[in-house]
Specification:
By secondary structure, this protein is an alpha+beta fold. Helix content is 27%, strand content 33%.
């Protein structure tokens, strides 16, 4: 069983009378990769700063290994931070950048029985620790390079090594991949997870990027407006969202008003569908979540519902197809092409429906009308060609 390392208890934070965190309660386990995920202004960075000691909560308590640390300054916490801007020393090489904190560090003198006398680390110990970190971050042989001779990903790994070389129990990472290009960002996601597993300490990661969170995390904390909306594994968060905000923020979702007629039977568009959810009151209004990849396009006569294709966007691996069902626009992701204007049927297996209780977010997400309009605007210049293509298909 994992051991609890950090606990935030009833934490509130306000800046100039604006409430940023609302009674936040959260615990983080030892050796866990936990991600704080949410849109800008949701309170995730404030939460990170409270853990690091850079911000003191207006009210509430912060515990580290069972000890209250509200008044403990950052440099006395067993916590280090990596920011989006790596702040490497440009005049120092990779070795000295990583060794910088060790040269400042003092430890009890082993020759002093009282343990009161403090001495600096020996040069041999510094070299041994830096070499160990260079091995972990796969930069052995780069010791003498200056930061400006490194790629963005290499600079980031040096910043992580500099934070880890002091052997903290927790590493805080505030959107450290934000400055990297897409391919490098994807590579570094895997690299970060590998480093976390190698060093065996707790990582607390802040991002607004759902893919980063799903790729790297053991646990995801989804936040909005200073409150936690859901905590769970990546699989739980994606497959079992608690409300419409989580369903919309983690991946794409069609969210439709429904009625739970009975266990495993949901009604929408006046029709009843088999699902796998239960535990709702008879005829309880609910939000029905259907992921775009869980919808199969079939001939109209074989479909559970029939609609009209209003927009098609090629995404390389798939088509994003917008389909109008009685004025509500669904997104379907499929490898099969359906032209604009086509009448199609759709089929959804029972486990493709996820039923959620109504919340303050109900009715705000899931309709792709605006999505469709944006693509219509982008394709305005191609309308004559599209018309010609449609004409050809009608002739067939």
């Amino acid at each position: 069983m994992s051991k609890e390392l950090i606990r935030l208890q009833n934490c509130c934070m306000a800046f100039d009378d604006e409430q940023v965190l609302n009674n936040l309660n959260l615990y983080i386990n030892d050796k866990e990769f936990l991600t704080l995920l949410g849109p800008s202004g949701c309170g995730k960075t404030t939460t990170l700063r409270i853990i690091g000691g850079f911000t003191t909560p207006t009210s509430g308590d912060v515990f580290f290994d069972g000890v209250r640390i509200n008044a403990v300054p950052p440099y006395q916490r067993q916590i280090n931070t990596v920011f989006q801007k790596y702040a490497l020393f440009p005049h120092l090489n990779v070795f000295e950048n990583i060794a910088f904190g060790l040269r400042m560090k003092k430890v009890p003198d082993p020759a002093d029985p009282s343990g009161k006398r403090m001495v600096k680390l020996s040069e041999d110990e510094i070299t041994r620790r830096v070499d160990e970190m260079l091995e972990i971050i796969s930069l052995k042989g780069f010791e003498n390079r200056k930061p400006d001779a490194l790629s963005g990903g290499q600079q980031q790994r040096v910043a992580i090594a500099r934070a880890l070389v002091n052997r903290p129990k927790v590493l805080l990472l505030d959107e450290p991949l934000g400055a990297l290009d897409l391919k490098l960002r994807k590579d570094m996601q895997m690299e970060l997870k590998k480093i976390q597993q190698q060093v065996g300490i707790t990582f607390v990661y802040v991002t607004h990027d759902q893919e980063e969170a799903l790729t790297m995390s053991d646990t995801i904390v989804v936040m909005d407006k200073g409150s936690i909306q859901q905590i769970g594994t990546p699989e739980d968060i994606y497959n079992e969202p608690k409300n419409a905000f989580v369903a919309d923020f983690i991946g794409e979702s069609n969210i439709i008003d429904g009625i739970m007629c009975a266990d495993s039977i949901v009604q929408m568009y006046g029709r009843k569908f088999q699902c796998v959810d239960s535990g709702f009151a008879p005829n309880e209004p609910v939000d029905v979540v259907i992921r775009p990849e869980d919808i199969d396009i079939v001939p109209v006569e074989q479909g559970q519902l029939a609609g009209t294709v209003t927009n098609v966007t090629f995404k390389g691996m798939q088509y994003d197809i917008i389909v109008d069902f009685r004025g509500f626009k669904w997104l379907i992701q499929t490898t099969d092409h359906s032209p604009v204007g086509a009448k199609i049927g759709v089929k959804i297996d029972p486990d493709g429906f996820h039923i959620m209780k109504k919340s303050a977010y109900s009715g705000k997400f899931g309709d792709y009308s605006s999505y469709s309009e944006e693509y219509d605007e982008l394709s305005d210049t191609e309308e004559p060609e599209d018309d010609a293509a449609e004409g050809d298909s009608h002739e067939e």
